[in-house]
Amino acid sequence: MLDLSNKIRVGLAAVILIPVLLYWGFASSPNETERENVSLLHGMDYFVETAVIKEWDAEGKLLRTLHTDQLEHYPNLKLSTLDKPESISIRKDYSKVKITSDTGTVLDDNNQTNLAGNVIVNDNPDSTSATILSTEQLTIYPNRDYAETDEPVNIVSSQSILKGVGMDIDFNTRILNLHSRVEGSHDNAK
Asked: Which controlled-vocabulary keywords does the entry list (predicted)?
């Protein structure tokens, strides 16, 4: 074996170890970079606790008020998530529709809102002629005042009870279509 002096041994060790230590200290593995990029792509850029959002028409009349315990915005997904949302919409005849659920998502362009978990639609919530619709999932298209679901639906009013699977509703015309397995009862007594 060659007899090397201590200075040469230290020099060789430094030449061998310095590039390895620099790589180890400054470089990241491909998996680490991938995880960081995924979190950036799907990360939240802001949140609002106890949010109240109001929407007005061109003449300044209130159209809709949304209350939510927490709103989280995800810019790359172009949506916001809602925790316990409650929306009150005011129609042209000044009647109201109140919609609540456990969770929701709203697309950034406000063309679609998806509600899930204990979805309740209360038509005319302040009157004795209120109609209450309940389901587990509802997709709302606010610009069209239209909603739909493929889930089971229960509808209760002062004179009738209806059940069905799948539904679409036009909130302006108040026309509701149940798609299948429809059953119900109606009381005409006054």
From this structure: Cell inner membrane, Cell membrane, Membrane, Transmembrane, Transmembrane helix
